Amino acid sequence: MIYVDVILPVPLTGLFTYNLPEGVEVKIGQRVLVSFGRNKTYVGIVAKTHRGPIPTEVKIKPILQVLDVEPILLDTQLRLWQWIADYYMSPIGEVYKAALPSGLKAEDGYKPKMETYIRLTPQFRSEHALHVALDMLQRAPKQLKAIVDFLSLTTDSSTESTIVAGTQLTRDELLNQGHTLQAVNSLIKRGILETYEQEVGRLNNGGEPHLEHIKPLSAPQQDAYNQIEFSFLKKNVTLLHGVTSSGKTEIYIHLIRQSLEQKKQVLYLLPEIALTVQIMKRLQHVFGSRLGIYHSKYSDAERVEIWQKQLSANPYDVILGARSAVFLPFQNLGLVIIDEEHETSYKQQDPAPRYHARSAAIILAQMFGAKTLLGTATPSLESYHNAKTGKYGLVELTQRYKGIELPEIQVVDIKDLQRRKMMKGPFSPILLNKVREALERGEQVILFQNRRGYAPMIECKQCGWVPHCSHCDVSLTFHRNLNQLTCHYCGTVYQVPVECPACGSKELQTRGYGTEKIETDVRDIFPEARIVRMDLDTTRTRQAYERIISDFSAGRTNLLIGTQMISKGLDFDKVSVVGILNADIMLNYPDFRAYEHAFMMMAQVSGRAGRKGKRGLVILQTKSPDLPLIQHVVRNDYAAFYRSLTVERQQFHYPPYYRLTYVFLKHHQDTVVNAAANEMGACLRQWLSGRVLGPDKPGVSKVKSLSIRKIVLKFELGINLSEIRRYLLLAQQQILQDKRYASLQIYYDVDPL
After folding, report:
1. pTM of the model
2. What is the distance between the alpha carbons of residues 270 and 325, in angstroms, rounded to a whole number?
3. Strand blocks (E) in 328-430
4. SS3 sequence of 135-199
5. Given a cut of 60, is residue 162 above it in pLDDT?
6. What is the C-alpha to C-alpha distance for residues 744 and 748, in angstroms, rounded to an integer?
7. Alpha-carbon distance 47 to 309, whole Å?
């Protein structure tokens, strides 16, 4: 008897064994339909076949159906899945759920897109028959016009013959010539035309490749390119640390061309879907139909078709995508580019697996013997540390393209201005003046505020009551356009109260500024401006992303207000002024990475200014102008910032000198989760001693009606991580065996951000 070990899309550890019916064959990576439990069926992935032995008391169910002729999962992908499951301590079924498009996880989930075509019936495919048809239609002018247009669209004009040359024509194409469906259907009833269905792809054809469109590199770019090539001779991973607008993308394009000349595939990762809009156009201009795009804003059917194309004999040579593109099937990967490698968007937070796409992509490249290039103007501390200590190669590009200066950054002390009552809401006088001058010159402006919504909260003016979410331990954000309060953790929506439930006062006021309120205020101050807002609320769809970026790039809008989305590598020619409205929102965050993230965000959003033509200006508003971090941003001195931060990190045992793992426990009852967390913490201390901190309540200690506790584990570099994982799973198993904790959730965040 042959047995098959199957990966199922369920949050349970391990593989599930089924027997293979006589006469049925399977391959590793094929999908199979199996029963699970009493009455459920799942689409599983074959991970292993073997002949036993199986304990006789265990009842093994048979595979119900093999769904594929060939595997849809390649061996390298399966190994990557297993690495992610092991390293991030997540069941491989969770990796399966994250990796595969939904259409491949259901037995009938994907349906090919069909198009209705029309053609002449066999009896009217001769010249004589066509003349008869035309004579017959003299009294039906609409039908006559339709058949004449059909013939003109499908006849080969290079020959004198009027016999149809076989050009395919869809029914919609004929209708788009101004004909009615009734006229076309009449021709079908007469037996002159017939319809047929044909599968068509959803994927856009980018046109012919045009490698001649690749721009020559400047001297500094060429030098960086040469250094990368030399680094790749010795290192598998190289960090390209290039200032904003130094032309890193053009270097990427030259590296991609070289990989394609070597018949290798390329994976180009970006942290945000918004970035793919601009980069896609640049890459399509050069690589045309050799480029494929893959991210979560594409429809599931589109993602299935890209997946299938990558398995075919004619896959895309270059894949441009966000985090999930790392899971696509590659057959001959030669280069991985991770642009904006510092971005936290590369880390999957919820649901599991909580993987980091940067790390996963590096492992994927290693499996192929491929090279990895990390590119950024503000490296993560871990990557820069790896480069400085020799684990990675390091190439630095210190000049902007064509020698344009980095923007001037003017720091504005808003604490002093507020004391003197000189602020107009969140705007300093100098910011308003510079924005007005830029708009009058026909230039563009970006205003950065890292909070969406109208106001972070509303408050009773009399007693200080603030509405909170009933499911989460957070205050509610006010969205004025929707006239509702929203929890940004669970998504629950509430009506805006007309009076305070605590004291009955009707004096409820907003506190703070979100991007929606900034937009409202800016419209009042600059009524002539063409304003657009870019945050999670305005970019729910792919089309929304594309429209906002396209309009701003083309100058149809000239003032962009946004959250951190706008800091991530977007390239706009005419932006001369950038306003950072409140740097303190980023600085005063209770997390050891707060300063690192704040530096990156401010440096990146500053880099949007003055990218073409002349030096830009950044107005940085803060209540802490003398903070060393602010001065590092002003001088764009990453090296000094790195030195100052690593001293603290080493002293307090944080990355890059130590590894972190967070253990989270959740339960509907606070007393239960508290008891379980204390027990698990004590259990782990027996094995790991001082490496265990907590348990404690996290900053937000209740989400979706589940109370949360957090245990922090700090491990020195070089420790046996496999052994650590074994201890953690033993402790988890011991806790969950207790009936008191039957519905307790325990999960891990490895290398948290």
Report:
1. 0.85
2. 10
3. 333-339, 371-376, 393-397, 408-413
4. HHCCCCHHHHHHHHHHHHHHECCCCCCCCECCCCEEHHHHHCCCCCHHHHHHHHHCCCEEEEEEE
5. no
6. 14
7. 22
